[in-house]
């Protein structure tokens, strides 16, 4: 069994994959939230974009930055903190969640209160409120004048540290 990245305990093929592949619609706001997290893990950027509500005056999601975040992160888990409404018979819902990931040697937690709307029978992500978090370094801090860990022989500040 290939477990679903969303943490449901079910097989990916029986959980989020049918939503991401478009063979089924998520029945609840939480199911959509879980499938969107799984889409980040499997780099299904079109699904992430397609499950966002589009309306006049609302900025579209940036495809490239979403793709970069998805592909350059090691996704470590999803935790659903609370769910308000968003059931099968509702038209609005709120899902508060934490998505844990590591990127560029830093472990981070994306904590958000996501707002969802059901339009024409389909749940969509409307917007969210992101909570500030503390980033935790997963490796030792490299000093600016130390040799670069990439092995170039240059000082960190003149190599990989110049890109940061």
| Global structural class | alpha+beta
- The SSE string, one letter per element, is HHHHEEEEEH
Main pleated sheet: 5 strands, antiparallel
Distance between the termini: 40 Å
Walk me through this protein's architecture.
This protein has 164 residues and is of the alpha+beta class. The protein has five helices and five strands; from the N terminus they run ααααβββββα. The protein has helices at residues 17-21, 29-42, 45-50, 63-71, 160-163, and strands at 74-85, 92-103, 106-119, 122-131, 136-137. Strands 1, 2, 3, 4 and 5 form a five-stranded antiparallel beta sheet that branches. Helix 2 (29-42) crosses helix 4 (63-71). The longest helix has 14 residues, at 29-42. It is elongated and about 60 Å long.
């Amino acid at each position: 069994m290939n477990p679903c990245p969303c943490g449901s305990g079910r097989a990916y093929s029986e959980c989020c994959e049918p939503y991401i592949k478009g063979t089924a619609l998520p029945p609840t706001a939480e199911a959509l939230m879980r499938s969107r997290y799984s889409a980040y893990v499997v780099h299904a950027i079109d699904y992430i974009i397609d499950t966002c509500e589009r309306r006049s005056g609302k900025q579209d999601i940036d495809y490239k930055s979403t793709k970069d975040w998805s592909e350059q992160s090691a996704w470590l888990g999803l935790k659903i903190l609370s769910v308000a409404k968003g059931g099968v018979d509702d038209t609005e819902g709120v899902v508060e969640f934490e998505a844990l990931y590591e990127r560029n040697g830093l472990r981070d937690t994306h904590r958000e209160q996501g707002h969802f709307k059901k339009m024409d029978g389909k749940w969509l992500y409307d917007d969210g409120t992101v909570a500030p978090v503390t980033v935790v370094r997963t490796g030792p801090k490299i000093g600016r004048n130390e040799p670069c860990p990439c092995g170039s022989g240059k000082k960190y500040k003149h190599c990989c540290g110049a890109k940061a």
